[in-house]
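Long-time lurker. I teach an intro course on protein structure, and each term I like to show students one example going from raw sequence to a predicted 3D structure in token notation. This year I'd like something fresh instead of my usual example. Would anyone be willing to generate the tokens for the chain below so I can use it in lecture? Attribution to the forum is fine with me.
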Amino acid sequence: MQRTTQKPQCVIDASVDYYTTCNSNVHRGAHRLADEATRRFEDARDIVKDFINAPKREEVIWTTGTTEAINIVANGLGSLLSAGDEIIATEMDHHANLVTWQQACKASGAVLRTIPVTDAGELDQAAYDAMLNERTKFVAFPHVSNALGTVNPVKAMTAKAKAVGAWVLVDGAQGAAHGYVDVQDIGCDFYALSGHKIYGPMGIGALWGKESVLSTWPVWRTGGEMISTVTLQDATWNVLPYRFEAGTPNVGDAIAMGEAIRWFSALDQEAVAAHEKALLDRATELAEQFEGLTIIGTAQEKIGVLSFVMDQGHPADIGFLLDRQGIAVRTGDHCAQPLMARFGVPGTARASFAIYNTLEEVDALFVALKKVRTMLA
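-- Reply from a regular --
Happy to contribute to a lecture. Here you go:
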């Protein structure tokens, strides 16, 4: 049970097939291998486009993952803000969706404001409403909290931000992993996602952004591929998506990420959602009955994650003793230290559920936790 998903064989096969049949750089070779690699690479971009319902393929930028995608936006944002402008983030953000905006504020003199989290682990919508004003230039929030599993009302929050003229970024690292992403319906300007959360490889992901925004957004890195013309004194930039894809891309993993999304999209999504809900419901029921265990995050809309602490033992001890029994959980602050401080805990143990987990495995987790409690008592 871990947030980095295991990979279906077709994803592994797609990566191996690229490296054994058409290993080449893309867009720049005048030979068959380069043509085939380019076709597969760009086909994968189309798969991502369709998966998130993006209007245009040119709006999909390959990145190393959600963190780089957010940094692309933050790097440009720092030069677009002025002193006194405001960015809104949240108290539940992953560090990649918080520290980035801190740095953008330091670069520009803008002010960072954060939406507080309720005792149930939900974003305080009344506080958010009160924060929005004519100085709000940018708003960022997670689709799903990585630490709590809270599903945020991203469409409604986006509409409120757009009403004051702000750009909106959704951290979709966890949201995309559960499907049903529609960037046009959400109405945001940017959506970031990672391959390894959705049964694909590590080190690959994507940033989607509206063409009207990305086409003039300050470039992230300079180098090959992202240029149009270069002289000894100056350069001009390529068109989308290539103006944000400097250097040799991670071709094999982009192709494999496309295959992962193709595989996932072919599943019965209603059945997937029902199965994941059944897993979380069972885990929640058993946790509520478990003496000395406290669930951290009890939002009404929640998916995929049970985060908890126990009266006995540090989360790291719990994780170690579970591992000795063949149960894998994540422990620590989950790259969300402000959120842990909000709940007054050093960290949590977090069980994460995916489509390959079973109800029997959920039961096994709590059988193992009983042994942990005995050993730590």
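Some talking points for your students: The chain has a mean pLDDT of 96. The radius of gyration is 22 Å.
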